[in-house]
């Protein structure tokens, strides 16, 4: 009996001690509550801290689930809740509320939200425990939010930035096109549906799906496809089908079509993979994004930022809307290029659909005026969603219009010879007036070369062969011997000075020009080949055009520019050529056209100077290889631009003079304007 009494007395004593323990102060409770708030621990806040009146007014889903959903939907983050500490010595009366100023800061998808409110704590007994509990209402989510109010988000799309040429001609702009559609009550013939499907490159089933939408009325226009404004041929075809019509609609336009196709690129619907990557930057599943060319490269500048607004719609039919946070719409940037769209169009058309590439630069500033890949695709066609049959047609085209040739590099052939000459003259190993005795169509230094011999196309060239004759007759043997004279080290160093082996400093990614696969020259035979643009040498077409700048600037090569707001005449390379040597090469390149084998460029209206080149690509054993033709040229009287042009497979078209004829058209058209 005594033992049992002792236990009872011990338990009673513990209860007494527990009752004597000091209760947490309202400030301590508030601090705990705010700690959970900052960690978004809403369940803990609801279950352990809210007072009885609040719980009766707001069920768990009104507090926990609603806040969790709002935080997710509104992308609320970086929540920072603080309170103003009470004055020193403040005493709390359990019979009265405890009020604290609470400061709330957060980031939302529409910008920052910040407010201050009084939070009240009441002393209550809950489940036989006495403590301070928080009195809560929805205004602690957003200050103006009351029971029954709705929170919604309003988004305003940004206008995509436009791409203009140097004269502010449109390259990629927000224009208009057409919705092709049908009026169901007038579109009843099966044959008409099949004809429309074939013209648009879509299935009959997809037309039926559009017509079968729940909102469709029999006498209402129903869009089934889109077409670019410049596709007049297709518009005429669909208009002739009974029950088919078209209506103007907002659309991205590429007015220069194929001429600027590879440069402009196009936009298209964002892919699921890209959306996952960019969702934090405001992209949604309905957005379009740059897919190729400048549309892709300039996506960040062109896309802009949607305007976002978080609104509270007050309860009641006529409830007003209050703005909680707002980020204004930022339209995309208008980007002005150095490109001359009309000159680009003229260059593209002059190439007559042949496979090749062209680039033109302003020799005084380095501005890129032309960057052509031929043939090309029409970006309007891709932007609208190209049909499988049409894509297959382009993919199987032997001229490969989907391949961007100005981004690639090619063996330059004899178009590199003025550069070889410049290196030799600057090294002091090539004296322009000194002639070499060259006999026969082939040559080798000695028997150590084995079967390798350098071949020249014009063995009839009269001896002695000086630099001028070597340029006019494009004499491979002359340049091979000059390269051997200057030596491997000097020649490689000279090519590196012209930018070989380094990244081209340009806004778009271009394949670098190379001396060889390893960047070095391993034998005398390779040295000879490289001197006239063969071997393993490759050049990018824009770089090739830039390499001719020192001949007009007395030794300076400028960084190639693409954007009008870039600083002009940024020196990329200098000291490449003396004024005297530059003048010698200018005279020689004019003679190439007047006296040599670029007679198609010997225009009566423009005094063109330049250098042709033919690069032989090795074919299978027993077969002749493909020949690519080059011509790099300028107007010798008014050198407003240097044009470098390459046409593939000219072996059956008279050699590189074929290319010179195309280039001459560009200069003549430019002069006539």
Automatic annotation (TrEMBL):
Protein name, entry field: Penicillin-binding protein transpeptidase
Gene Ontology BP terms: cell wall organization; response to antibiotic
Subcellular location: Membrane
Transmembrane regions listed in the UniProt entry: none
Record keyword Phosphoprotein present: no
Keywords carried by this UniProt record: Membrane, Signal
Lineage: Bacteria, Bacillati, Bacillota, Bacilli, Bacillales
PROSITE patterns the UniProt entry points to: PROKAR_LIPOPROTEIN
Domain (NTF2-like N-terminal transpeptidase): residue spans on this chain: 25-148
Penicillin-binding protein dimerisation domain segment(s): 156-314
Family named by the database record: Belongs to the transpeptidase family.
Domain Penicillin-binding protein transpeptidase: 357-667
